[in-house]
Amino acid sequence: MSSKLIAIVAGVGAGTGAAVARKFAATYPVVLLARNPDSYQSLAEEINASGGKAIGISTDVSDSKSVQLAVDAIKKEFGSDVAAAAAIFNASGGFMRRPFLEVPEDAFTQSLTVSAKGGFLFSQATLPLLLEGVKQKSQYPPSLIFTGATASVKSSAQMSSFSTGKWALRALSQSLAKEFGPEGVHVSHAIIDGVIDIPRTKGWLKDAGPDAKLSADGIANDYWYLHTQPRTNFTWELDLRPAVEKW
Amino acid sequence: MSSKLIAIVAGVGAGTGAAVARKFAATYPVVLLARNPDSYQSLAEEINASGGKAIGISTDVSDSKSVQLAVDAIKKEFGSDVAAAAAIFNASGGFMRRPFLEVPEDAFTQSLTVSAKGGFLFSQATLPLLLEGVKQKSQYPPSLIFTGATASVKSSAQMSSFSTGKWALRALSQSLAKEFGPEGVHVSHAIIDGVIDIPRTKGWLKDAGPDAKLSADGIANDYWYLHTQPRTNFTWELDLRPAVEKW
Amino acid sequence: MSSKLIAIVAGVGAGTGAAVARKFAATYPVVLLARNPDSYQSLAEEINASGGKAIGISTDVSDSKSVQLAVDAIKKEFGSDVAAAAAIFNASGGFMRRPFLEVPEDAFTQSLTVSAKGGFLFSQATLPLLLEGVKQKSQYPPSLIFTGATASVKSSAQMSSFSTGKWALRALSQSLAKEFGPEGVHVSHAIIDGVIDIPRTKGWLKDAGPDAKLSADGIANDYWYLHTQPRTNFTWELDLRPAVEKW
Amino acid sequence: MSSKLIAIVAGVGAGTGAAVARKFAATYPVVLLARNPDSYQSLAEEINASGGKAIGISTDVSDSKSVQLAVDAIKKEFGSDVAAAAAIFNASGGFMRRPFLEVPEDAFTQSLTVSAKGGFLFSQATLPLLLEGVKQKSQYPPSLIFTGATASVKSSAQMSSFSTGKWALRALSQSLAKEFGPEGVHVSHAIIDGVIDIPRTKGWLKDAGPDAKLSADGIANDYWYLHTQPRTNFTWELDLRPAVEKW
């Protein structure tokens, strides 16, 4: 199955990652990366059942060996000359709001490990495939997209464990955008500034009206739009928030 | 011709403004504002000839009386209950790079007058029409889009006359996004970071390859995309630059 | 009285400007600029009575003729080869929080006129004197300092008339810092993020404790510190806020 | 030796850290932390010989056990109720400019480990001592100061390993400033934007004139100034660069 362009999504749960995977699966075979098969199994089945193609690979993005095994599995499935049209990094260390002196070292480093080191390993693993996509003259410029948050640009009190990872990831994305833009790879960073409407947030913001939460499908559309921008008009960063959000 | 949604574009020359007008004309009647009929006449004819509808109104956006006359003309043409789906502010004071002590007062104030005061008057004139669009439940959230530049976020040596106007316009757009987002109007600011490929820049960046300049049609697509974002996923700001741009 | 270095302060009322003038008057003769003699008269008397030297000049910083007359008066007083050690722009258009559609054109343009055009005229008038200070090898690098606010970096809803002027002034200061740093003039911008403790704010923040407001004398110290930084260690921007401020 | 206020400096080599230690040693006993005794031994001797007091402790700031041992050693030396007037984090992971795909995992994580995790561990270790300083009513508000760089606010191509750590550290400092300012601890971040004049950079920028490099003693003065700001006028962030620096 050589010379086929694929999309790779890291961090697929019941929210943004799944919506993004569904969106890109309409055009590309998708590879779903998550630590736990529970996170991708039903999604892969759904995509495969509806005419798309998806494979899930249990991967810890913060572990270089695990990431290398994922690349090996991708090449085994799609051929050693497999190229990527898109790679989306949607993984995140655990959100925590806690007085600084009570933050356990493990919690602090876990955010850095997933967001920063994970972002690094994912980028080193997928950029060669994205550059191969450039070489194979993909219809749209191959895209590497990172999911950011309010905490990517603002570091609130009691939030340092989350924000340090997110600021580091944003720095990574900016450096990569500058280095790989001229190579034809489109690197973007989306600042998700609000609550995303997913099963886990069902009861949140109940009194704020029907549009108080970001739509995960909407984010998927936004990522797809970034992906389709031509080489002349690359966006590195955009923010996304509900109309009613205070900011 | 009541309950018709229109799009209003200020600053239509041979470049971005014209491309944006063409793009929005595929869906809405467009109103073209420019000081000089030369700037909009052939464009209006082209749009009208190709099945769209366009009218041009000679307007100095930095003069409140002139802006009021434009609103009167719009209401005369489209009815007093006219609503706007989009208003795009693409006007700009003259770009100037000159040692600060040699910048004439007129040149400095002209940038402020067009960008900041012009942006203010244009917003006060069009926001009531955009709010009317919200009331009339337009398909897409009514959009107020401002064209920014590299100089909107970076104030280089010898560039203060241009950057002061652009920073002020960005401040205006951020304040309006926060105030009118909850009202249903989508306010955005696009940072155009590079040279746009228009007749005036034909000879520029010749050695930098075919994609070294931003596509004006691409910018129009980007503005259209912003316009179609749903209430749950508003972008205030995005940057746009050629893949090969150094930044 | 030639080859004497002076300090010039624009915007001296009962608050920051007066404190800054007092501080710099300990070292330099000071020139106090304000539209109304009421704003500088008693301050000038106080400084002169306590062994310093101060003159007040009624000046509208947003009017180029008025600014030119001030420069003429300075040269008449201190000699045509007068040099400046410091020029501090502390003027500001009126603060206003009001729904955007109710902001009068005059109020909007007044902020731009004072902050942006005033900053421009003040800079064009004082930079030649500051450059003369470089030539005369002043002990400390001649300093041009601008007073900013929270609204210089954040444009809140209903605050656009104030923030547009402040963002423009910040852009001016950044451009000047880049152009005139290499010439030996130190250009700085201070973000005053909080309420300043002055007569007008006496009753404010009563329940927030004794240190909830910025000290005007403290700001004066901060400006003096900026002034004394050597050529190797120039600060363009710093923020200043009470320890208890939420941000 | 109870109720004595100390200063703690992490990252003392031949440059900024040493200059900062000398400056603060004029007022406080100083604790010098570095991995290698070579980095602090002669400095400690110099300070002790010139009438100050300094102790060096071999510490790996990225290792929680090592940091805990340092705190134990401090308490043994200065008493269990020791309080800190200042804690300065000047450590940094290795600077590296290299094509992203050639950056070894170790190099990438080392920057995160020293800057981000090290900053975290140093802050958790010193904040209790700084809060004790507040309780003991130190003359100046106890200060926690972080050394940043150009790469703290700008992430250039091929620089992601350095910038990710530096952005994370800046996020940490902002969060701590917001949380601990109201507690009376002054948290600051200095953006050092240029080459520092230290033995290692002796041959650099030779043609750029005598003032083309930042003075390490100047930085020490700047940190001391931050330390002396009163509770009403805290600076979180300032930038520092030579007058001639291009930016």
Automatic annotation (TrEMBL), chains A, B, C, D:
InterPro entries listed in its UniProt record: NAD(P)-bd_dom_sf, SDR_fam
Pfam families: adh_short
PANTHER family: OXIDOREDUCTASE, SHORT CHAIN DEHYDROGENASE/REDUCTASE FAMILY (AFU_ORTHOLOGUE AFUA_5G14000), OXIDOREDUCTASE, SHORT CHAIN DEHYDROGENASE_REDUCTASE FAMILY (AFU_ORTHOLOGUE AFUA_5G14000)
The protein, known as: NAD(P)-binding protein
